[in-house]
Amino acid sequence: MAPPRTLVIVLAGGAGSRLELLTKHRAKPAMRFAGTHRLVDFPLSNARNAGIDDVWVVQQFHPTSLNVHLANGRPWDLDRTRGGLLVLEPYQGDEREGWHAGTADALWRFAPAIEGFGADAVVVVSADAIYRLDYAAVVDEHLASDAEVTMVTVQHDGDNTRYGVVETKDGRITGYQLKPDEPATDIVTTEVFVFDPQALVAGLETVAEQGEDALTDLGEALLPLFVERGTAHDYRHTGYWQDVGTVAAYWRTNVAFARADAPFDVDDEAWPISTRGARRGGARVSGGGEVESSLLGPGARIEGRVRGSVIGPGVHIHAGAEVVDSVIIDGAVVGAGARVVRAIVDERARIGDGVTVGVGAEGRDDDEAITLVGAAAEVDGDLSAGARHPEQ
Questions:
Q1: Nucleotidyl transferase domain location, by residue (predicted)?
Q2: How far apart are CA 296 and CA 305, in angstroms?
Q3: Contact at 8 Å (CB) between 153 and 125?
Q4: Element of type H or E holding 131
Q5: Taking the mean position of all CA atoms in its chain, how far away is CA 127?
Q6: What does the alpha-carbon distance between residue 311 and residue 290 come to, in Å, rounded to a whole number?
């Protein structure tokens, strides 16, 4: 029996404003992760590892930053003559032209193409979470359930007011709230959804008929529509999942992957997270440099001390410098004798000699203590814990 014809749609067009300076000049899915990868690598690798060959990526903000990395789908074996990777962007020419106002709006604008593809199931995913998931297994359960939508959910500790929160009974989703002030449960959606294609297109048209402002995000009107008529199925993901759509979550998750007990191995041969190949030599630790519980990207030069941190490609940590519990992104420089604590330093930024970034952050574990330095910034004076230093 042939496997179901499956289409994966990666929604990669959001502005990513919660990441503040980090998404000023790049798409959120193009954000570096764990020193070598990008956020978009996770859904693309999940599709590839699940044996799904048809993947569409919907773009909008800063598309060039993402397109360069996508490389026509080659890193995920999606550069095919038939099928493979297809990039969709806002366009002009018919009644569905223009900018996307949200995830549901983006799908509605490409609904004719979705309908014409003729899939048995459409997997819609975001590109701002870290996880491994067999999309094919979710599709199989979805088709067996006879549901119109299957929502992949997790039990999530912490602040759930930023997510879609669900109530379930016997595998069915009986209640759904988007970003509620008082969540009814601790079960949240992972922003991975499997739709019956006909139900998806019809549902989008139903929402569109409510007015031009109705088509915003999936959780505003479309998902509640399916829940209300009892056609929403729950697929509980029991593995690791973490949204990294905020500065604090991005920092915390990166640092977690630098530890020996990282949530999972991105190089696991059974489920590798593929990425566009590095074009640099190996990292170098020299001149008395020390590294403890950290990730080093290719081409990094470590002459100082690095502890509990993620060091991106081409980063230079000069002699006498110390980097602790921080994320230093591509090509950034930490000057001689400088100290960086609980910070994110964006690409090509320069921390001056003897400067301390994250003054007062040592020993703190609150999200407000994370200091953020923008791309290409020149930091010539000390920055306190939680400070924001924009680019020059």
A1: 8-256
A2: 12
A3: no
A4: strand 129-131
A5: 4
A6: 13
CB atoms within 10 A of CB 113: 14
Residue of 21, 24, 33, 32 whose CA lies nearest to 370: 21
Q: Is 148 helix (H, G, I), strand (E, B) or coil?
A: coil
Spatial distance between the Cα atoms of 85 and 74, rounded to a whole number of angstroms? 9
Q: Indicate the pTM of the whole model.
A: 0.95
Q: Which residues of 142-181 are buried (b: 16+ CB within 10 A; e: fewer)?
A: bbebebbbbbbbbebeeebebbbbbbbeeeebebbbbeee
| Distance from C-alpha of 123 to C-alpha of 134, rounded to nearest angstrom | 11
Which of 217, 63, 49, 42 has its CA nearest to residue 127?
Answer: 42
The residues near 51 (Cβ < 8 Å, ≥ 6 apart) are 3, 136
Among 332, 344, 338, 333, smallest CA distance to 369 is for 344
Cβ–Cβ < 8 Å for 108, 222: no
Confidence of residue 333 (pLDDT cuts 50, 70, 90): very high
- Alpha-carbon dihedral 247, 249, 255, 261, rounded to 10 degrees: -170
Distance from C-alpha of 214 to C-alpha of 211, rounded to nearest angstrom:
5
DSSP codes of every residue in 32-93 = EETTTEETTHHHHHHHHHTT--EEEEE--SSHHHHHHHHGGGGGGT---SSSEEEEE----S
Q: Taking 90 as the threshold, does the pLDDT of residue 101 lie above it?
A: no
Could you tell me the domains of the chain? 6-257 (3.90.550.10), 282-389 (2.160.10.10)
* pLDDT classification of 39: cutoffs 50, 70, 90: very high
pLDDT digits (tens, 9 = 90+) for 287-310: 899 999 999 999 999 999 999 999
Confidence (pLDDT) at 378: 97
31/143 Cα distance (integer angstroms): 34
Q: The tokens 């995920």 sit on which residue?
A: 76
Amino acid identity of residue 316, one-letter, is: H
